[in-house]
C-alpha cells in the first residue's frame, strides 16, 4: 500500500468555517498518523465570490490552529509548494479542458444546447408531476449534423456527462457500505458551462486524480456528490480513491450548523480569545472519540491516536460549553510568560475600544497570574475580569454600591468604616491580603454586618463590578493609595445621592 495522500480543498468564498477546519484537522491527523501526505488545494473557480482576503483568512487560521500541509500554497496569493503545483484551480484550467476534450472524444460527455428557458420549463414540468428534477436528455442523442447546426447558430454548448444506469456502491470508511442508484442523480450533469467554466464535480475529480489522492475525507454534505465523482473517476480511467464522510456538525437543536444559529468562523473564536490548543482539541472531538475517558489532548497526541474507525456516523453537536471548558483548561496549562504574551493583544484591544485607559507592562501582569489564570474562560475576558486595574476612574452606579440586604445609610457607614480601618491599620508596606482580611472581618463582626455584604460594597466601590477575583487580592493589586482614593470617590457618590434624596 502506498502512503496515503489526503487533501483539504476549501473554496476561498468565505472565512475559514468550523466545518472546514474540522475536515482539515481530520485529514491532517490521518496523514500524520499514517505517514501520509496532506495537500491543501484552493478551489477558486467561483471567481465572483472568491477573494484573496478569504484565501488569506483560510491559510492564516489553519496556521494558527497549528495545521501544516505538505503541498499547496503557503501564503495567500503566494507560490505553491509540491510536485503537483499549481494547487489553485484557476491555474489548472488547461487540465480541465484537456480532460473535457477527452471525455467528449470518447462520447462519455456531450455538448448540450438547452437554453435556460427550456431547462426551467423541464424543471416546472417535473415539479408538476411531483418528480425530482432531472435532465431529460434532450441533447444526449444529437447527431453530428445537429450539433454542428447549433454551433453554427452561435448557441453556447455546455458539456454534460453521461450518467449510466447503474448502482454505485462504495465502502465508506465511516459509514460502511453505501449504495446509490444513478437514477437518483438528476440525469446527465453539466461538467463545463457554456462559457467554458468547469464545474465543481468535474474539477474536484480531475484534481484528485492528478494529485493522486488516495483517501477523500470530507463532510457528509458531500455524500450525495460521491456517486457522481466515482463515475467521473472511472470515466477518466483513474482508480477510485477511498471515501470517509465525516458526520455533520449540528447546532444544539440538532439542525445543521449554520451561521444564523452558531458562530461559524474560526477567526471569531480566535478574536474572542479561544486558544488554538483548545480549538484543535474541541474540533478533534466533533465526531471522533478517543475510546477512553481522556479529554485533553495536544495536536501531537491526537496525531498519534487518530483513526477513522472511531469517527461516528451520527451528527456531532457543537457544544459551546464544552469548548469554553476546554479553553479554560488549556489557559490553565499555559506558563505565566505564555499567558502574559497571549493576553497583551487583548488588553491592547480593550484599550483601543476605551474599556481600559492603559495596557499594563508584562511585569505588572506577572504577579496577577495566580489570581486570573483559573478564572479566564477566554483570553478576551481579561478586561472584564481585572480591567478595573487599568482604568483611571471607575464609573459607579450608586445603586450597585448598596448590597441587597443593606440600605443606603448602611452602605455609606460600611464604606466609611472600611476606609478608616484600612487607613489606620494597614500601611503601604504591609498592604497584603493576609494583613487586610482580619481587620475587615473584625469590622464586620463588631458592627453586626455580614462580612459578605461589607465585602460586596467594598468590591463595587473599588472595581465598579460585583464579580472580581478574590477581594483582598484585588485590593492588593490596586495598591493602597488607589483603594483609598476609590473608597473616597464611592463615599462621596453615595453621600451625594443621599443628600439629593
Ligand atoms: N471545495 C469543496 C468544499 O469546500 C471541496 C469539497 C471536497 O472536499 O470534495 O466544500
What does this structure look like?
Helix 16 packs across helix 17 and helix 18 crosses helix 20 (480-500). The strands form six sheets. The protein has a three-stranded antiparallel sheet with strand order 5-6-9. Helix 1 links the parallel strand 1 (5-8) and strand 2. With 501 residues, the protein is mainly alpha-helical. The protein contains 20 helices and 13 strands.
Could you give the topology of this structure?
Elements: E1 5-8, H1 18-34, E2 37-40, H2 52-65, E3 72-73, E4 80-81, H3 93-105, E5 109-112, H4 116-128, H5 144-152, E6 158-161, E7 167-172, E8 176-181, E9 189-192, H6 200-210, E10 215-219, H7 226-235, E11 242-246, E12 249-250, H8 266-272, H9 276-284, H10 299-305, E13 316-317, H11 320-333, H12 336-352, H13 362-365, H14 369-372, H15 382-386, H16 408-425, H17 433-447, H18 451-463, H19 471-478, H20 480-500
Parallel strand pairs: 1-2, 10-11, 12-13
Antiparallel strand pairs: 3-4, 5-6, 6-9, 7-8
Amino acid at each position: 500500500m502506498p502512503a496515503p495522500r489526503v487533501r483539504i480543498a476549501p473554496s476561498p468564498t468565505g472565512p475559514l468555517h468550523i466545518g472546514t477546519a474540522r475536515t482539515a484537522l481530520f485529514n491532517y491527523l490521518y496523514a500524520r498518523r499514517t505517514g501520509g501526505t496532506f495537500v491543501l488545494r484552493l478551489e477558486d473557480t467561483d471567481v465572483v465570490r472568491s477573494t484573496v482576503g478569504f484565501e488569506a483568512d483560510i491559510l492564516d487560521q489553519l496556521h494558527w490552529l497549528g495545521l501544516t500541509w505538505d503541498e499547496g500554497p503557503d501564503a495567500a496569493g503566494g507560490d505553491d509548494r509540491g510536485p503537483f503545483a499549481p494547487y489553485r484551480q484557476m491555474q489548472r484550467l488547461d487540465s480541465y479542458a484537456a480532460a473535457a476534450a477527452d471525455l467528449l472524444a470518447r462520447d462519455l460527455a456531450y455538448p448540450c444546447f438547452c437554453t435556460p428557458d427550456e431547462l426551467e420549463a423541464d424543471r416546472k414540468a417535473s415539479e408538476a408531476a411531483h418528480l425530482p428534477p432531472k435532465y431529460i436528455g434532450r441533447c444526449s442523442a444529437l447527431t453530428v449534423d445537429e450539433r454542428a447546426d447549433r454551433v453554427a447558430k452561435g448557441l453556447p454548448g455546455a458539456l454534460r456527462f453521461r450518467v449510466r444506469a447503474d448502482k454505485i456502491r462504495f465502502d465508506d470508511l465511516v459509514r460502511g457500505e453505501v449504495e446509490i442508484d444513478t437514477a437518483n442523480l438528476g440525469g446527465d450533469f453539466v461538467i463545463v458551462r457554456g462559457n467554458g467554466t468547469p464545474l465543481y464535480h468535474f474539477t474536484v475529480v480531475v484534481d484528485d486524480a492528478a494529485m493522486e489522492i488516495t483517501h477523500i475525507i470530507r463532510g457528509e454534505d458531500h455524500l450525495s456528490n460521491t456517486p457522481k465523482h466515482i463515475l467521473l473517476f472511472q470515466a477518466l480511467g483513474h482508480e477510485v480513491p477511498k471515501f470517509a464522510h465525516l458526520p455533520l456538525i449540528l447546532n444544539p437543536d440538532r439542525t445543521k450548523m449554520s451561521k444564523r444559529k452558531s458562530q461559524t468562523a474560526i477567526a471569531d473564536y480566535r478574536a474572542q480569545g479561544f486558544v488554538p490548543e483548545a480549538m484543535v482539541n474541541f474540533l478533534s472531538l466533533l465526531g471522533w472519540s478517543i475510546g477512553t475517558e481522556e479529554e485533553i489532548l495536544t495536536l501531537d497526541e491526537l496525531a498519534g491516536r487518530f483513526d477513522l474507525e472511531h469517527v461516528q456516523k451520527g451528527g456531532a453537536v457543537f457544544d459551546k460549553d464544552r469548548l469554553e471548558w476546554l479553553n479554560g483548561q488549556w489557559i490553565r496549562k499555559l506558563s505565566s510568560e505564555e499567558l502574559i504574551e497571549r493576553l497583551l493583544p487583548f488588553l491592547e484591544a480593550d484599550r483601543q475600544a476605551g474599556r481600559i485607559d492603559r495596557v499594563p507592562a508584562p511585569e505588572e501582569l506577572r504577579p496577577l497570574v495566580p489570581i486570573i489564570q483559573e478564572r479566564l474562560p477566554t483570553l478576551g475576558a481579561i478586561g472584564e475580569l481585572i480591567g478595573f486595574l487599568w482604568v483611571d476612574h471607575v464609573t459607579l452606579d450608586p445603586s450597585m454600591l448598596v448590597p441587597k440586604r443593606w440600605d443606603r445609610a448602611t452602605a455609606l457607614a460600611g464604606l466609611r468604616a472600611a476606609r478608616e480601618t484600612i487607613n489606620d491599620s494597614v500601611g503601604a508596606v504591609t498592604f497584603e491580603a493576609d494583613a487586610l482580611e482580619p481587620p475587615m472581618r473584625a469590622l464586620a463582626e463588631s458592627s453586626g454586618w455580614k462580612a459578605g455584604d461589607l465585602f460586596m460594597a467594598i468590591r463595587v466601590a473599588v472595581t465598579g463590578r460585583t464579580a472580581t477575583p478574590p477581594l483582598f487580592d484585588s485590593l492588593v493589586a490596586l495598591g493602597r493609595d488607589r483603594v483609598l482614593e476609590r473608597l473616597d470617590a464611592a463615599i462621596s457618590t453615595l453621600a451625594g445621592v443621599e443628600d439629593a434624596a
